[in-house]
Every structure is written in C-alpha cells, then in structure tokens.
Amino acid sequence: MLRRLLLILVPAVFVLVAAVLIPLGTVVAGQLTQEMYVDRLGDAGRFTALARTALDTGRVDPLTREMERYEELYGIPAVVVAPDGTVVTGSGGRARMRELLDAVQARPMITAAMAGERPAPPATVWPWSGEPLVVAEPIGRDSEVAGAVVVVSPTDWLGAEILGSWALLALFSVLPLTLLVSAAVPLSRWVLRPINRLDAATTAVSGGDLEVHVDAAGGPPELRRLTESFNTMVGVVSRALDRQRAFVSEASHQLRNPLASLRLAVENLAPYLESEEAREAHAVAIDETTAMHRMLNSLLAATRLESVTGTEPVEVAEVLRSREERWRALGEGRGIAVGTDVPAGLWVSAPAGGLGSILDELVSNALRLSGGTRVVVRADPGDPVRLRVLDDGDGLPEAEYALALDRFWRSPRHQNTEGTGLGLAIVADLMREAGGRLVLGTGLTGTDRPGFGVTLELPAAAPLPDRPDAG
C-alpha cells in the first residue's frame, strides 16, 4: 500500500514542481527575448541616425564600413533599404543582402517601416525555433521616411542562453524536489499507519479473533474516527456472539434436567396404563422425550463447534491417532468397521482446535446414517489437502447434496434416526471461515451401493518449527 501511495504522491510532486518551473521558464525566455529585442532596436536606431546623414550627403562608405565592422564583431547583418525596396548598402554585398532579406521574409516589416511605423515586439524565442530576430527601423518619420535599416540577428546564442537559464532553474529545483519527495515517504507512512493497523485487525477478525483492538492514536482525524468505529463494531459483534452462544449453551443445560425429570415421570406411568391406546401414547411420549434429549445434546455440540475461531497448522495423522480408537469402538457397537488411511507428516491449516470435533461429527454421521459396513477416513496430499470421510452405504441422491448443507435439513429416509441436521451445515461454515470448503459426493467403491463421501478441502500448511518432523 505504501508503494501505491508513493506512486501517486511522487508524480504529484513532480507535477507540482513542473507547474512552477514551466511558467517561470516561459517568463525567463520572454524576458531574454525582450532584452535582445531592445538591444537590436538600439543598434538599428544608431544605424538609422548614421544612414540619415549618409543619404543626405551621399557618402555611404562610412556607414558601410560601420555595418561591416558590426557584423564582423557580433555576427549580425545590417542592411539599408531604399523606399523602392532596393538595397542601398549593408554589411555585405548587395546580392547577399537581398538573399538574406528574402530568406528571413523581411518584406512585410520593411513595408511597415517605410510607412513610418516602428516594429512590433517579437514573439518569444524558443531554443528549438532557430528563426532569426528581425528588426526594421524607419529612417525618418511620417512623410520624410527616406528608407529603412534592417538588422537580422541570429538567435542561436539566445537559445543557448535560455537553455542555460532553464538548466539553472532545474538545478535550483532539485533541492525543493528532493525535500518534497523525502517528505512523501514519512507522510505516506503517517497516513497509512492506522490503515495498516486496521488491515491487520480485519485479518485477525476474519480469522475469528474478536479480541483484537486497534490503537486509535496517530494518523489523520478521519482515520482515527474510523479506527474508533471499528473497535466499537468488533466489541458489539463479539458481545452479540458471546450472548448467543451463552444463551444456547445455558438454555440447553437448563432444559436438560427438567427434560430428564419429565422422561422419568412419563416412564413411571407405564404400570398404570391399562388400554392399548394409552400404552401406544406412552411409547410415543417416551420417543419424543428421547428425541428432545438428542436435540439438546446436538445443540450443545453445535455450540462447541461454532465457538471454534481462527486457524492453526495441525498434523492430520496426530489428530486421527487421538480419535480412531473411539471411532472403532463406536463402529463396533453398530457393526461397522472404521479405518484410517492418512500419511504421516501431512499438515493442514484447520479451524483452531476444531479439526478433531469436525471429524467426530462426520464419522458420527457416517455411523448413524450410512447403513453400510465400512467407514474410512482418508487424506490425499496436495494443496489443498483433501481429507475424506467415506462409507459404503446407501448414500444420498445428488439432487439432495445442496439441501444437506442447510441447517435442520434431514433426508426423508432418516427422519426417525437420531440427529438434528445441524452438523454438516456448521462444518461447511467452519470450512469456509478457515479458507477451505466442504464437498459432498459418492463414497467407497467396490459394492453395489454408491456410498456417501464428505471431502474437506483445507490449505496445506508448513510444519511447526518445534516439531521433530519440521525438518
């Protein structure tokens, strides 16, 4: 972000300096042009006075020698033109002077001078123009104009002088430009400091850490207010989630004892029931209280799952070692074999402290709902790592895959089976928050039934440095 902001500020600094230098350079070029014009106008005025005397006396040789000396010293040709446009004399031969006047297109200026008008100030000379500066001064005034003096001044040296002045301006601008660019770095860091803190905080919140707090000190006032609003928002969300989880947990705990007492009371009614209808109603009541008890247990388990926040690197094989004995015991009670196929040293970025609970939920679903004889927990290395819980049971139609991830949804075939329909939905949410996803599909092959499979796709993680298998 600092680099992007500097990419905006540094060009802006150059534009700002250029916005000052360009008008200043234009003024310098105009001023030097004006100075040259005034000098050439003075030279032309001096030649005009000499030419007036020469024309009146008919002695032009002194004027010619003066013009030749002038061109020899300064490299600036000078010409005296008669009212009919012919060359009277100049700093060179008459043929060369006529070619010079034609080359610089001096005829319009000579015509204006013959009318007694002084030349208009020239346009600004630029270093790349190369056009000479032409001054035509009338000899005499009004009806007494006896000719015109034309001075053709090359502008090469003026262009070089303008370039030198511009180079000097650019050199003087290096210091303020350096100061402004140097100031852009700390200024950018000062502006971005609260933004960087907010970025780190939002990353922590997205990872499930709702205890994060951003220091509101430093930075522009608008960003300080934004930081304070962010802290307030995180506090509100954290308290709301805590109240929600506490309510579900406490309500489930508070309902468990009355429900157990209710079930005991209903069971104690059995000796007093004489009719067949009463005994059937009694059995229904016992089944309902059992279902309510399972629902409370599922809500408590769901609350524990939903309390998982953040991610951490975990070794899959280690998680399975702590649980596969229990899974096998549960499977033996239902006549289902449970196996694992996970390579050692496979690390994933999983919900913090929650991967074991997630696998417990998936294996429990497979044992309760598959109707098969085998359940296998398998891991495929890669990025992402695919952790699969597969069975060889009846499976689900593909049309019900999306519905299976809705909360409290249960397949029509499993309406009388224990469970609440919460597990898969919560696991799918946890996978998304951990940067992975949950995918439903078919299960174990090799039987005449499709089976059912749940795949957890989790980002691969580097081993923790303090572990023996970290390298």
Structure description:
The model has no long low-confidence stretch (mean pLDDT 82). The protein has 3 domains: 2-161, Beta-Lactamase, CATH 3.30.450; 212-307, Signal transduction histidine kinase, dimerisation/phosphotransfer (DHp) domain (Helix Hairpins, Orthogonal Bundle), CATH 1.10.287.130; 310-470, Heat Shock Protein 90. Strands 6-8-9-11-10 form a 5-stranded mixed β-sheet. 55% of the residues lie in helices and 13% in strands. The chain is rod-shaped. It is of the alpha+beta class.
Key structural traits:
Heat Shock Protein 90; 11 helices; Helix Hairpins; rod-shaped; Beta-Lactamase; 471 residues; five-stranded mixed β-sheet
How many helices? The count is: 11
> What is the string of SSEs from the N terminus onward?
HHEEHHEEHHHEHHEEHEEHEE
Lateral strand order in the biggest sheet: 6-8-9-11-10
State the fourth-level CATH superfamily of the largest domain. Answer: Histidine kinase-like ATPase, C-terminal domain
The first-level CATH class of the largest domain is given as Alpha Beta
Number of domains: 3
The overall pLDDT, averaged over residues, is 82
